[in-house]
Specification:
- This protein is 41% helix and 23% strand.
- The strands form three sheets. It has a six-stranded mixed β-sheet. The protein has a three-stranded mixed β-sheet with strand order 1-3-2. Strands 4-5-6 form a three-stranded antiparallel β-sheet, with no helix packed on it.
- It is elongated and about 110 Å long.
- α5 packs across α6.
- The chain is α/β, with parallel strands linked by helices.
- The termini are far apart.
- A hairpin with a 3-residue loop joins β2 and β3.
- The protein folds into three domains: 27 residues, no CATH class; 71 residues, Ubiquitin-like (UB roll) (Roll), CATH 3.10.20.310; 129 residues, no CATH class.
């Protein structure tokens, strides 16, 4: 049905107030149509105007392994693009697809600038895989940084990725990170934290040639404190103590090299005597 005959018929069928309302509706429809036509005509001219073309992309990143150009490109930001066409949220999502990116923020600055702020993940440990070393952050994300690989002096977590299921791997990795955090709090530096096939945790202190068996890592705070106290009391002579077993809740078991038991007892006795003598001198 054509619009004008339909409106004439509708007008003849309406009462006085109905005709007034119909006339108002026609006026509003006419105004809306004119406004839309003007909008559709003007908007492309505004969007495509050179005044709004992207000229400056400012990139801030807390690592120099990724270049500003590569980050801008990954976000889909190119000079000459209309700023009206830049989707800041989508650009930030594209940046955060990189494993090493902890957070990204993109904001438009009219008429012709975009600001990009990228924060990298902070590694607390490293691990090995068939394709080489990776970093691990405190939340358990395993990643590689952009550009040339750099692996600072971090403790290595090994064995966790040899466990059967993905769920077991993730759970074990988080337990290992809890252990490292407890040891860090006690001031014990670790070279390696290894999980064996029976899911026992073994660690190797950075400053001692000794293996430490934690067993289950559920009591990492207690184990870290016990280890710190044990290392402080033990002699630093290499090869005397080969293993420290902290798997029992109330003691630390020392396993020594052949003939090392008497040396350890003698050194501990001498240290105890020195401590007692020092205490007497302080009181005197």
């Amino acid at each position: 049905m054509r619009l004008r005959p339909f409106l004439r018929k509708l007008k003849s069928d309406l009462s006085g107030w109905g005709r007034v309302l119909l006339a108002a509706a026609v006026v509003l429809l006419t105004v809306a149509s004119a406004a839309y036509a003007s909008y559709a005509h003007v908007l492309p001219r505004v969007v495509d105007h050179p005044y709004f073309q992207l000229k400056t992309i400012r990139v801030a990143c807390d690592t120099d392994t990724a270049t500003a150009q590569s980050l801008a490109s990954r976000a889909g930001l190119y000079a000459g693009t209309s700023l009206w066409d830049v989707n800041a949220a989508r650009a930030a999502d594209q940046l955060e697809l990189a494993d090493w990116v902890r957070s990204a923020n993109v904001s438009r600055r009219f008429p012709d600038r975009v600001s990009v702020d990228v924060k990298r993940r902070v590694p607390v440990a490293a691990t090995m895989s068939s394709s080489g070393p990776y970093l691990i952050d405190a939340s358990g994300v395993v990643y590689r940084e952009e550009g040339p690989a750099r692996y600072p002096d971090l403790p290595y977590i090994t064995g966790w990725n040899d466990l059967g299921s993905r769920s077991a791997q993730v759970t074990t990795l988080h337990s290992a990170l809890d252990v490292l955090e407890s040891l860090r709090h006690e001031g014990v530096r670790v070279s390696e934290l290894h999980i064996d096939g029976d899911r026992n945790f073994w660690l190797y202190p950075d400053s001692r040639s000794v293996a430490v068996k934690l067993g289950d890592a559920a009591e990492s705070e207690r184990q870290a404190k016990t280890l710190r106290m044990t290392l402080e009391r033990l002699p630093k002579a290499p090869g005397v103590v080969e293993e420290i077993d902290l798997s029992l809740p109330d003691r630390a078991i020392l396993r020594t090299a052949k003939g090392g038991r008497d040396r350890v007892l003698s050194m501990l006795a001498n240290r105890e005597a020195e401590t007692r003598a020092r205490g007497l001198n302080d009181r005197g």
